[in-house]
Amino acid sequence: MSKAEGFQINWIKLRNEETNEIFWQEAKDFSDQSQIHEITLPTCILDMKAVSRELSFSTVEELKNFRLVHTAKFKGKLLEQMNFSMGPVKKGTSNVWISSFIAAPESQMMPAKVLNGKVCIETDFYDDTEKFATSVIKLFYSP
């Protein structure tokens, strides 16, 4: 079994870091590379100072140095790229990985109507230098 076949995202939750309130969650395998996943977020996310992403995943194979590269693109052009490293993950386990995202200054933010359907989050999953999966999520916004 390949690492990609043995890897699964169980669910994702997004929280307002100031209030700890969950404002979006979905139990779906976003690591399924056969499609572009679409999600609808509340527009209030654009007013939050910081958001945390809780990512529950399972792996059949051991990951010696689990990491991911999170890339946000607007109309296909790079907005930002962030690297996250978790380290070793035991085979046959389920884990939750929490990452924080700090908002850009208000002067650099675009309104939801401009961003709607034009932002994609591409997440590449690695074991050290070996990329074994990619997830693409297209963002939509709703009041």
TrEMBL record:
Q: Which InterPro entries match?
A: Ig_E-set, PDED_dom, PDED_dom_sf
Which superkingdom is the protein from? Eukaryota
Q: Where is the GMP phosphodiesterase delta subunit domain?
A: 4-141
Provide a GO CC annotation, any one. cytoplasm
Q: Which PANTHER family match?
A: RETINAL ROD RHODOPSIN-SENSITIVE CGMP 3',5'-CYCLIC PHOSPHODIESTERASE DELTA-SUBUNIT, RETINAL ROD RHODOPSIN-SENSITIVE CGMP 3',5'-CYCLIC PHOSPHODIESTERASE SUBUNIT DELTA
What family is reported? Belongs to the PDE6D/unc-119 family.
Question: What's the protein here called?
Answer: GMP phosphodiesterase delta subunit domain-containing protein
